[in-house]
Amino acid sequence: FLSSSLLAPLANADIKIGVISSSTGPIALVGIPQKNTIPLLPTSAGGEKITYLPLDDGSDPTATVKAFKKLIDEEHVDAIIGPSGSGNAMSVIQFAAESGTPMLAPVGTAAVVLPMTEQKKWVFKTTQNDDLIAEALVEHMKSTGVKT
After folding, report:
1. Distance set, CA 134 to CA 49, 53, 131 (Å)
2. Once rounded to an integer, what is the mean pLDDT over residues 58-84?
3. If we measure between CA atoms, which residue out of 24, 98, 96 comes closest to residue 54?
4. Displacement of CA 32 from its chain's centroid (Å)
5. How far is 35 from 16, CA to CA, in rounded Å?
6. Measured in Å, how far apart are the chain's first and last C-alpha atoms?
7. Are 24 and 54 contacting, i.e. CB atoms less than 8 angstroms apart?
8. How far does Cα 50 stand from its chain's mean position?
9. Which of 108, 126, 111 is nearest to 37 (CA)?
10. How far apart are CA 16 and CA 53, in angstroms?
């Protein structure tokens, strides 16, 4: 028998989402819009408050790893959105798997999810694959007569 006062803290647990974007450095073209999306995200779901914890990795995979570990070990996030770059995402897959933290990867490369492995089952790719875009670009180039 548990009293409702003991269960109240469990029912009101905040959802913490880490966000790693490359808002500086060479990937900033992608990372800045991702960072700017944070204020548009929902602040509650199912009656629970959602808190977003944004970090900039400076487009550096080593900084991505540090940010990822900080969000997991110090902030105890429930999930992570990011990072912005494919190489950066590849560098943290093992940490998502080891901690059981879902990672929403807004990157082009299919390598973050294929071939599917025990580690990659924690990664959810949110964009179309890079080969799909490349195919569309090449078809457009052919149809408009681009030769070089």
Report:
1. 40, 33, 5
2. 98
3. 24
4. 14
5. 16
6. 74
7. no
8. 16
9. 126
10. 7
DSSP readout, 54-84?
A: EEE-TT-HHHHHHHHHHHHHTS--SEEE--S
Q: What helix, strand, coil percent values describe the chain, rounded to 5?
A: 45, 20, 35
Q: What is the DSSP string of 9-31?
A: HHHTPPEEEEEEE--SSTTHHHH
Region 126-142: mean pLDDT is 89
Is 13:48 a contact under the CB 8 Å cutoff? yes
Amino acid at 26: P
Residue 4 or 139, more confident:
139
Residue in this structure with the two tokens 């080969």, named with its chain if needed? 131
Q: How confident is the model at residue 101 (pLDDT cuts 50, 70, 90)?
A: very high
Average of pLDDT values for 140-144?
96
- Single-letter amino acid, residue 52: Y
